[in-house]
Specification:
There is one protein chain. By secondary structure, the chain is an all-alpha fold. It has 23 helices and 2 strands. It has one domain: MFS general substrate transporter like domains (Growth Hormone, Chain: A), CATH 1.20.1250.20. A two-stranded antiparallel sheet has the order 1-2. Helix 2 packs parallel to helix 9.
Length: 463
């Protein structure tokens, strides 16, 4: 599948300047929100081997369930939250989401037992529901399809950087044992929750819902953006099926075979991402028993961050290549194959260094694919259909977010190690690669049929 786009050299002056301003004015702030979002939801992975599991008496399966139950609340409210964002506007709704999850995250400071931990993780998922698809939809609404890969790549950089910066930060916070009378892992939850509340309030003042509402775009830049976006939206098949209305939008999204196939593709990617995110600190903690090495909290945080440094670099370079060539099937499927093969291999390495090196290959693969994947749904959906479709796809990812940590922990308890768990992760990522190829072939066959016209506006999609 490729999205054909003209090179950057052929851009009109207004287009270049508008995209540059959006890249500097909007994307960094939304990426900061995503950074805090991912840090808050994965903070439990840093706390688990550093006091939380022992203080609360958790088994691996209990930790996995508590990690994954977050996604049950998230899944239940995912589509309704994104429809509310479409109705009330991204600025207000994203701010509401962020302030709410910051308050819930703050309550982890005082969690006292396993049931309380499960309850708070569930409420955190309820609070965060709709943030990620809402952010994707918001950024997609500001730029035409040809620029979305670049914008989403810049946005997605926040996710690996969350671990690059967040892991050492979490290690340092947990090292401040007895600060304010709190154990280290409780102080860490305090440190990562307060920024969500502050940035959520700032969101109300920094973001705007549409290009026409900002003062930092010149009239010719606003005119180019509005003309390009209107032309693109009216060309999408969603408009011809009442996709701009709530009921019609839901019908278009839930009735689309492509949306459902993309949902299962995304399931595999997120299964790999969260198995890695939630259990990598625990795997590193096990290096002492496996290899006889010992690391302090800060060193563990730095080691956890290592795979995400090349992941951030490759994410950016891979997305630049996708912009120049157009997003092709192999920009998404090839990383899935590499990740699926590499992640089980990591557990058979003879040293901590080689283990982390192979895990880095897995992280690179996952993050190379994700921003390019998210350019696909908004190419053929618009309005309420886009809100519902993006939310549905992300909901399937969150099913994986629940399943991955729980199944990984359960299998680790059953087998005594993580080898079987990582083979399961590899299977789901390889399945994603296969399904992505089938999506591309199915679209090519459909687009070539006399009764169906191409459906991606000004961008053509083909295998």
């Amino acid at each position: 599948m490729d999205v054909t786009a003209a090179g950057a050299a052929s851009m009109p002056i207004a287009e270049k300047s508008a995209i540059r301003k959006i890249s500097f004015r909007i994307v960094p702030f939304v990426a900061l929100m995503f950074f805090i979002n991912f840090l808050d939801r994965t903070a439990i992975s840093f706390a688990a081997p550093n006091g939380l599991e022992s203080d609360l008496g958790l088994s691996a399966a209990q930790f996995g369930f508590a990690s994954g139950v977050f996604f049950i609340g998230y899944i239940v409210l995912e589509v309704p939250s994104n429809m509310a964002l479409h109705r009330f506007g991204a600025r207000v709704w994203l701010a509401r989401i962020m302030i709410t999850w910051g308050i819930v995250s703050l309550l982890f400071v005082w969690v006292g037992n396993y049931p309380q931990l499960v309850g708070l993780r569930f409420l955190l998922g309820v609070a965060e529901a709709g943030f990620f698809p809402g952010a994707i939809l918001y950024l997609s609404s500001w730029v035409p399809a040809r620029h979305r890969g670049t914008m989403l790549a810049l946005f997605y950089l926040a996710q690996p950087l969350t671990t690059v910066i967040g892991s050492p930060l979490a290690g340092w916070l947990m090292g401040q044992d007895h600060a304010l009378g709190l154990s280290g892992w409780r102080f860490m939850f305090l440190g990562v929750s307060l920024p969500a509340i502050v940035v959520g309030i700032l969101c109300l003042f920094v973001l705007r819902d549409r290009p026409s509402q900002v003062k930092w775009l010149d009239p010719d830049e606003k005119e180019w953006l509005e003309t390009a976006l209107i032309a693109e939206n009216t060309a999408k098949e969603g408009d011809s099926r009442d996709g701009g209305h709530r009921k019609g939008g839901l019908r278009v999204a839930f009735g689309s075979g492509r949306v459902w196939m993309l949902s299962f593709v995304y399931f595999g990617f997120i299964y790999g991402l969260y198995a890695l995110s939630f259990f990598l600190p625990t795997i590193i903690d096990g290096f002492q028993q496996q290899f006889g090495t010992t690391f302090d909290l800060f060193q563990k945080g730095l080691i956890t961050a290592i795979p995400y440094v090349p992941a951030a670099v490759v994410l950016y370079l891979w997305s630049r290549d996708a912009f120049r060539r157009g997003v092709r099937t192999w920009h998404i499927a090839l990383p899935a194959v590499v990740g699926g093969v590499s992640i089980p291999v990591a557990l058979f390495m003879p040293s901590p260094a080689t283990t982390i090196a192979v895990i880095a290959v897995t992280a690179v693969a996952i993050f190379a694919a994700l921003p390019n994947f998210w350019t696909v749904p908004t190419q053929f959906l618009t309005g309420a259909a886009a809100a519902a479709g993006v939310a549905l796809i992300n909901t399937m990812g969150n099913v994986a977010g629940f399943a991955a940590p729980y199944i990984t922990g359960w299998l680790a308890d059953m087998t005594g190690d993580y080898q079987v768990s990582m083979f399961v992760v590899g299977f789901f990522m390889l399945l994603s690669a296969l399904l992505m190829v089938l999506v591309a072939r199915g679209h090519r066959a459909g687009a070539s049929a006399p009764s169906e016209r191409p459906t991606i506006g000004t961008a053509q999609v083909r295998a």
